[in-house]
Fold:
Amino acid sequence: MDADVAVIGAGVVGTAVALALARRGAAVAVLEAEPEPGLAASGTNSGILHTGFDSTPGELETRLILRSAELRDDVLGQLGIPVLRCGAVLRPSGGEERATAARLAEGAERNGVRAELDPDGSLRVPGEAVTDPVDYTCALAAAATDIGARVRTGSRVVALRPVSGGVEAEDEGGARLRARVAVNCAGLHADELARMAGDSSFEIYPRKGEFLVFDPPDGRPLERILLPVPTARTKGVLVFPTLDGRIVAGPTAVDQEDKDDWSVRPEAAAEIVPKAVAMHPPLEGSEPIASYAGLRPAGRGVNYAIGASARAAGLVNVAAVRSTGLTASLGIAEHVARIVAGLGVPLGDEAPLPRRAPREPGSWWRRTAGFRAAA
Ligand SMILES: Cc1cc2nc3c(=O)[nH]c(=O)nc-3n(C[C@H](O)[C@H](O)[C@H](O)COP(=O)(O)OP(=O)(O)OC[C@H]3O[C@@H](n4cnc5c(N)ncnc54)[C@H](O)[C@@H]3O)c2cc1C
Structure:
């Protein structure tokens, strides 16, 4: 075997899994199709570290979000990942929305998350924070490498087949890697990866989310994340500050079939701007300085499809992590480490994290947006 575990995909989920396994002593190799980690959903999101205040109590997604919150401060501190601990506020506009806000406050309490209901019906969630999701993903990859994992970029896996005692992955350049276990963290393409190994139990489709980036219209940074009242389908269009002092409005939620269409639709601004102005009136009349789109890896009829494949020996799927993967990645990784150990890969106690110098906040949203626009 070339490795104990092959992790396919270096988004935030794959890099967190690689780090968790490497910290526990496994020989890990990460295979990533693109030239750098975090160029897919993990680099084109809102960058919000959610508290889980609005997550459905008891679900796997919720449990992993809450567990991540316990693990996160150590990771942010040791790896020097920038974070804006600004909190969020949700301001309901009418009676029905006030009732939803009150229900959210009850849910937050059940999840053990601090949320305060103001007399005017507004819900304040002090623990919500914003990070740089590109730096977050790259820091996890770098830390995994520091403690022995190998990360191979430009390595798109095109075949996954069983071999004696494990799984063999082959990339489009013909390079082969044998491992006892393969962990499928391929985001939008996780269904194709699973199918290569004979598992067609789930399907992934892209749910596009578009964003507009503004300079602060009055020169003042936004103080907190402004949340709309969510619906069953989406958290809705938010307005949030970035670490580099910009204001971002989005995302939309548009289901599509094409996994390669990262464009911002011409009609996106008309959908986003009125909602953003309603929440933050100074944006009225402002021109966006940039726009970008992300594709959520959504599962058809399934969310957080995480587990050992029932159809392909040695394959663990970590798929359909649609909307909260940045937030939940550390909890997901710990959960996956237990699954991998259950498949017979010996894991030891967790080694300490390497220390990395704190990073200056940058305009992370330019990198992935530029890469996708050029592609
Ligand atoms: C618009 C939007 C807003 C969001 N906002 C938030 C938020 O505020 N907070 C939050 O917590 N989450 C948010 N999310 C969700 C979060 O971004 C995702 O849950 C998370 O990025 C999923 O990570 P992943 O590693 O599973 O997938 P990805 O980031 O898509 O990574 C998958 C990786 O696998 C690679 N890959 C694919 N196929 C192959 C192959 N054959 N061989 C090798 N490599 C392959 C890809 O290149 C990619 O790098 C948002 C998502 C979107 C799109």
The chain has eight helices and 20 strands. Residues 94 and 121 are 9 Å apart (CA to CA).
